[in-house]
Amino acid sequence: MFGGAWGFKTEYGDENGPEAYCVESGEYFWGGTSDKEVRRKLLVQPVIICPNASDHGLSPVTQESQ
Question: pTM value?
Answer without folding.
Answer: 0.54
